[in-house]
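Lecture notes, unit on protein representations.

Consider one protein chain, 85 amino acids long.
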Amino acid sequence: MTGFDANANRRLSAKLHRRVCLVLTEDALLAEEVLARKKLSAEVAGRLSDKVVLIRPGRIDAVLDELRKMGHTPQVVGKVGEPRA
């Protein structure tokens, strides 16, 4: 049995969260720049990888504004409108 097969029976626990906002950067240096910026770091809930930063709920517009002030042109993918009643 190979190492891959031995791991096939292991379980992976994961949580699925809806309506989370992530900043995905092209490289780790850009993520570090986001974390170093005082106004942006206050909006960060966590870092998921060297290139992915989790944003606090409801703060994506403030993050987008600050990224634009820094000269970045963020692309928004899958933005949802106002919550439904």
